[in-house]
Structure prediction request, 1085 residues.
Amino acid sequence: MQTTLDAYDTPAPDHIRSHPKHWRNRKAGHHWRTHDEEFDGSKLGMWLFLTTEVLLFAGIFCGYAVFRLLYPEAWANGSHYLDWRFGAANTVVLLISSWTVANAVRCAQLNNQKWLKINLIITLICAALFVFIKLKFEYIPKLADGKAPGTFFNYPMAQDPHEPLWWSLYYVGTGIHALHVLIGATLLGWVLYRSWRYQAYGPTEYTMVENSALYWHLVDLVWIFLFPLLYLIH
Amino acid sequence: MSHAANHNDALGWNPDDPHGTNTHAHGHVVVSWKIQLGVLLVLLFFTALTVAFYNLEQWAENAFSIHLPLWVNIVGAMLIASIKATLVCMYFMQLRYDKPLNTFALLFCLFAVGLFLFFSMLDLSTRGAVNKFKYGEIQSGGTGVSLDAPPRDERFDARLSPRVQTGGDNLINTVRQNAIAAYLAEHPDKTEKDWWAKMYAKQKHPHHHWADTENYFAQLGYDHSEPALSTSQKRVVRTGRTDALELAPGHAAHNDHGAASHNADH
Amino acid sequence: MSTIDATHTGPHGHHEGSYLDGPAGFWSRIAQWAVTVDHKKIGVMYLFAVLFMFFLGGVAALAVRLELLDPVRDVVQPDGTSVTTGYILQSIFGATDGVSGNEIYNRAFTLHGAIMVFMFIVPSIPASLGNFFLPIMLGAKDVAFPRLNLLSWYIYVFGSIFGVLSILMGGVDTGWTFYTPYSLTTDADHWRVVLMVLAAFILGFSSILTGMNFIVTVHKLRAPGMGWFDMPLFIWAIYATSIIQVLATPVIGITLLLLIFERIFRIGIFDPAMGGDPVLYQHFFWFYSHPVVYVMILPAMGIISELLAVHCRKHIFGYRAIAFSSLGIAAVSFLVWGHHMFTAMGELAAMLFSALTFLVAIPTAIKVFNWIATLYKGSIALNTPMLYTLAFLFLFSIGGLTGLPLGALATDLHLHDSYFVVAHFHYVMMGGTVIAFVGGIHHWWPKMFGRMYNEKVGMLGCVIVFIGFNVTFFTQFILGTQGMPRRYANYVDEFQLLHQISTVGSWLLLVGFLVHLFNFIHSLLAGPKAPPNPWGGLTLEWETESPPIEHNFHHEPIVKHGPYDFDTVVPPHCDPKDFPLPDKA
Prediction:
């Protein structure tokens, strides 16, 4: 299997090569024994953080499950109000972005600076596309219909008195997820900026790329479950 | 301790280079692009599969009135989602090539999620079940009843968002009546029936899978001012009492907690 | 834990000053501390922050006890008019805004609970003593992510500011649990409930960051030679605590977020009027808040393990049993949250949770038995930390055992929401955690600040605190069994004597803590300089100087003996004559 030792030996441009932020010039923090230890530690820390994210969304999923149990009709109606095509489109967008960001990590590991940036840019475009679809085809038309959460609910054709709760769960769940999309995009944007400016990431220094990518995959994971729960189960 | 020296090696700690300023000694695994692309394609395939499964089921239901059991829908969708999630974790997040500790952290967290869901659901799904010898003592109350008669809760009329002025009616019905009133005010020549027709036309968007589209408004009746709302889960049997919902406004809000505010105020 | 091995002289191997040294000048010193990433400085900053919050919460507690000194009575004057007496807080603060004495009382106990739980006891031991000593005990130079560590302190301060702001705006009367639907409707025109909930939400991030940091530190930064079972038990306890913090805190995050949405947008998930379920809120809340009870007590147990072994100068009995029981408690903590809501749940769930609740007793009892066995034939030094350790064993056992009737469904039906519950969790939280915390501060004070405290004054303070605590809270067990419900400003006359005894006890507690405060201030100003190892401890923090140097150790330590090998090792920096090894023959 290929390892980071097989990285391309492309030299960096002169003005970047000696910059302290260039990946070759990075050193481990003073309290770490080796660079590898620091990488493993950071990754473990990121995974622990991801577990907290999973448990955060567990609250949403638990609320969904409980109210589905209590008010199955409202939940069935709710999922019919959503158009699976937009959900599926967003799923595809996120899956592709997940793939490109995984590729970005690979490029950083192999010192392929050009494709690292290209992959990150595609990922960011996907993030924007996701938010755009969410707003343009889902949030805005639905709010205009009066399909709003809780007491803001103003949709005259509702059939079940608990439909406002469905919309509450829908907006909270997808809203917090969309917030995570924005946070993830910000992280990846920062990675892109630093690799553009300093070539900050390479085979021995790609912790930030890896951790941002992990975060982005988590955003994808949550959507993988939100999509069938909200759009497909009735 | 004699094993100290060995332990150093195990940690990869080098006394000559205590801070690891040199490059990685053994390199990290790089996942091949073929695997990544393959995983993406499999993920897209499963997305298509779950959507197809859903549409097939809807079609069978609408066209032939074949009602598959509910669990088929849920289990199918969640099974596919779990497979997709596993693939993302193993290959995109590289857990397969990583230290097992990270996988362990994730699994432990999923275990906690499972506990959370299991016990919450267990309580909610069995809350109506009481021991036989207690029958007759338990009074139902709580959520379902209150929503059918929300006006008893002053919050809907007094303090809340100005959007909600139910004035004693059901929330859904209030919203509907308001919409009809607004429509009639705007179009003096139209009747309530026209409003229903308009909304009906709007509803007939092709991507909505109404289980019983054609009969829906026939059931309701066009000129039905108070449409029959679904009844199956309107009342959820609960144990315990929620007196607050039965009291006059003014007492309602304080009953649940305000033991301390009761006793000396009166 | 070992003699220092000159394996290498790192870049920081030259002479370094104490971590307390800094630039001259008050403001440059402040600036240095404000941007420090040194875990010791952050630990000290946390220590002062949580102690300040302890003071604030304590004032609220004293106010609560003061109000309960006297029930509300209509007293008929000689001239025939009747006067209402007993609103003590109202007569102090005045009845502004039409807020009655009862409402002031509601706010006082809520502030006491919210401050003590979210701002004091959860971060108390892990974030202060844990931050300071976890890396040193592991032989590391710092925690894994020093900058995150500083961030967590700032988040803590930021969150606390929100909490204090809410108090200044008039306080919250929901109880620290923010139970819905009351918390959705009370103070409807004010932001203070939202602010307090937001404070708890923000503080959660600080807790998560600390926990993450510690887990990674334990996994990755142990000194060469330190295997998992060479770690001091304090580290095991903090490790188990961190697991709970990481896994449970996000759930309170989403819960409080939903609660904020409820209040601002009325989404209805927890609001019965909308079809939501208030008991679901309780499930969400206690899924975090029960495990967090063990976030409070586990580090205290870790402290006790350290203090016992060092001040008995004896190898801890059942090292592995204590270590694994910490993890066991962490695991069981996720299975028992339902016992906070027995009367709200369905019967099947209540029975299951009741059965599971008794599981907690097993690892807890394992610890207590091992501690007692450690005392057996130890050379016990009766100093302040040891006194506090003994107080812990006594009080914590009472607190733990009174949990059993509360975990049993039949007795809980009678005792729930009574003063029995109040007394039970104060015996665990205060008699356990706070007592261990104060004992731990005494134990490590010489190491943290390089000064000895006055032993006699410390012991006097301990005795006063112990008596005051029991006078305050043992009476509450009796009150509870007699039927005094919690969270009431008023009561029937028959309870007055016990309430008065309890209130006097709270004043005794105040005196006890003031004695300690005086002792610590005196120690900082004029205490004798502390030797590197005043107690003869074997863990790594006693190898370095008092106070430790900037990078903890002059050379990376290599661990050559266990943390409790008092039988075979002369403690570092100690005269073998003072610490004779037992005769092997």
The domain at 52-232 of chain A is CATH 1.20.120.80 (Four Helix Bundle (Hemerythrin (Met), subunit A)).
